[in-house]
Amino acid sequence: MTNDMSLQDINPCFPGLDEHLIFFYAGYFSQNIINAIGDAVRLRIGQSDASGSVRRKIFSTFIEMAQNIVHYSSDSLTPPEQTTLEMRAGSVLVTHVDNAFLILCANPVSQEFAEQLTPQLEPLRAMTNEQIKDAYRKALRSETNENSKGAGLGLLTIAKDSSAPIEYGFNPIGNGMLMFTLKATI
Fold first, then answer.
1. Bridge partner list, 74
2. What InterPro entries does UniProt report for this protein, alphabetically (predicted)?
3. Exposure of 114 by Cβ count < 10 A (0-12 exposed, 13-18 middle, 19+ buried)?
4. CA–CA–CA angle 24, 25, 28 (5° rounding)
């Protein structure tokens, strides 16, 4: 499925993103791959004239999106019984458009997972920055959701660091699967 994943997989949802491309990766993600490409992203955004705070937010958002791919993409090379080294497919893009940095990710998900994810995403779009920060603090103190591979902080972190409401979509890709896309603006 992901052997053909390219910038065009994201572009139909967010056209014009490749004009000022900073970083794009499509393929299989693991924690080791995230660490390696994280170094490349850090170097590339370090070359921009963005403030330290903006660079930190870009990097943090990139890491959260890449980790979400490792944890939740439906396209996995990892056998179900293996939990130590997950490898799952997706793509991440960082670009600079109209004085803003855009970080996007895309990965295949099942219809069932999309139905579970939408109620988590939609409220984030309507929340103020202060409400997102409050929800983040509460999530830090709460117990981990049984369906979450983290403390449920990833989407809150992305929304907290974004300067505009996050955008997302689910596009059919066949075999009952959907391509989940998430966009953060910094």
1. none
2. DUF6272
3. middle
4. 165
The residue-averaged pLDDT of 98-116 equals: 95
In whole angstroms, what is the distance from residue 186 CA to residue 3 CA? 29
Is 107 in a helix, a strand, or coil? Answer: strand
**Cβ–Cβ < 8 Å for 182, 166:** yes
How far is 183 from 14, CA to CA, in rounded Å? 9
- 3-state DSSP: the chain helix, strand, coil percent, rounded to 5? 45, 25, 30
The domain in which residue 72 lies consists of 2-185
Q: What distance in Å separates the CA atoms of residue 7 and residue 44, rounded to the nearest whole number?
A: 18
**Measured distance CA(116)–CA(180) in Å, rounded:** 12
Task: Spell out where the chain has E strands.
Answer: 21-29, 88-97, 100-110, 167-174, 177-185
Report pLDDT digits (tens) over 111-141: 999 999 999 999 999 999 999 999 999 988 8
CATH of the domain at 22: 3.30.565.10
In total, how many domains does the chain have? Answer: 1
